[in-house]
């Protein structure tokens, strides 16, 4: 039986995998919004579409539940790597994937247990590359006023953009208040993912996450890499950092080569088919 989708999560950050070899779906924004909807669809923090096979290369496209496309997703890459293993695509436990935000290198440490390491590449703090509006600069320890309160922000890209807010105390309430304002702020032409960062010690940080195009999530791999890199840039942590999130922890290592390597788990949830009513809605939305 062919399945239309597979569902996995990385520390509670859940994604639907749609494989073009299995399912013939055009991923228009309104179709993505419907499938990801927690009440009217399957429900998820996004869609992973692939593998798109180009010769030897395996490409992954990543979509947020608002229908926008993300350049990179750390949990998404780990989840997709587990799917490739489960679906029998892999001939090795080490391989590379193409994403909109660049090539990443994956190692299945223990695939069935879902322990996967990803070299997410390098980060940049340069405004033009994040991007952040204003004069060309590294965006480090800048002041940003939201709702009359001044925040210290450091912005960077690891393929997708992140705004890290350094605080002594963090909470879900605060990230849900300022996250959407920062996400859509005029400073960020492509919008931005937002994290509140609390440094616990030289090897442990705690974050709360507001994702571009997704909202509050329990965990985020690219956010883990971005916040660890920002804390390291600010001299607040060592190069081996455990990132603690509401959904669990991810280990991030910052290499001497500048590459950021993330290790975390993946949980397989279910596989399914779109039943007639939803399939008809998808067909209507795609104009078929
Ligand atoms: N949950 C993802 C983040 C997706 C990033 C996406 N929201 C964007 O627009 O960049 C992760 O584990 O990295």
TrEMBL record:
Binding site for substrate: 13, 64, 74-75, 160, 193, 211-212, 221-222
Protein family (similarity comment): Belongs to the diaminopimelate epimerase family.
Function: Catalyzes the stereoinversion of LL-2,6-diaminopimelate (L,L-DAP) to meso-diaminopimelate (meso-DAP), a precursor of L-lysine and an essential component of the bacterial peptidoglycan.
One Gene Ontology cellular component: cytosol
Cross-referenced HAMAP family: DAP_epimerase (MF_00197)
Main location class: cytoplasm
The entry's keywords: Amino-acid biosynthesis, Cytoplasm, Isomerase, Lysine biosynthesis
Record's subunit section: Homodimer.
Gene3D superfamilies linked to this entry: Diaminopimelate Epimerase, Chain A, domain 1 (3.10.310.10)
Recorded catalytic activity of this chain's protein: (2S,6S)-2,6-diaminopimelate = meso-2,6-diaminopimelate
EC number(s) on file: 5.1.1.7
UniProt protein name: Diaminopimelate epimerase
Organism of this sequence: Anaerosporomusa subterranea
């Amino acid at each position: 039986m062919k399945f239309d989708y597979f569902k996995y999560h990385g520390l509670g950050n859940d994604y639907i995998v749609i494989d073009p070899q299995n399912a013939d779906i055009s991923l228009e924004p309104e179709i993505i919004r419907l499938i990801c909807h927690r009440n009217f669809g399957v429900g998820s923090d996004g869609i992973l579409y692939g593998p798109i096979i180009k010769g030897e290369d395996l490409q992954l496209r990543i979509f947020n539940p608002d229908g926008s496309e993300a350049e990179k997703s750390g949990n998404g890459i780990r989840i997709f790597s587990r799917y490739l293993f489960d679906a029998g695509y892999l001939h090795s436990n080490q391989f590379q994937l193409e994403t909109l935000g660049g090539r990443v290198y994956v190692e299945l440490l223990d695939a069935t247990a879902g322990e996967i390491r990803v070299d997410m590449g390098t980060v940049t703090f340069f405004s033009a590359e994040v991007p952040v509006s204003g004069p060309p600069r590294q965006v480090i320890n800048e002041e940003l006023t939201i709702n009359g309160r001044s925040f210290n922000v450091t912005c960077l890209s690891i393929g997708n953009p992140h705004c890290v807010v350094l605080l002594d105390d963090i909470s879900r309430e605060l990230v849900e208040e300022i996250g959407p304002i920062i996400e859509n702020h005029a400073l960020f032409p492509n919008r931005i993912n937002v994290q509140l960062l609390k440094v616990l010690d030289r090897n442990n940080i705690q974050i709360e996450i507001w994702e571009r195009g997704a909202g509050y999530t329990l965990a985020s791999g690219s956010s883990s890499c971005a916040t660890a890199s920002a804390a390291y840039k600010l001299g607040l942590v060592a190069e081996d950092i455990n990132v603690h999130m509401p959904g669990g922890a991810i280990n991030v290592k910052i290499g001497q080569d500048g590459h950021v390597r993330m290790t975390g788990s993946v949980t397989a949830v279910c596989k399914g088919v779109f039943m007639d009513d939803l399939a008809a809605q998808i067909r209507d939305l795609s104009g078929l």
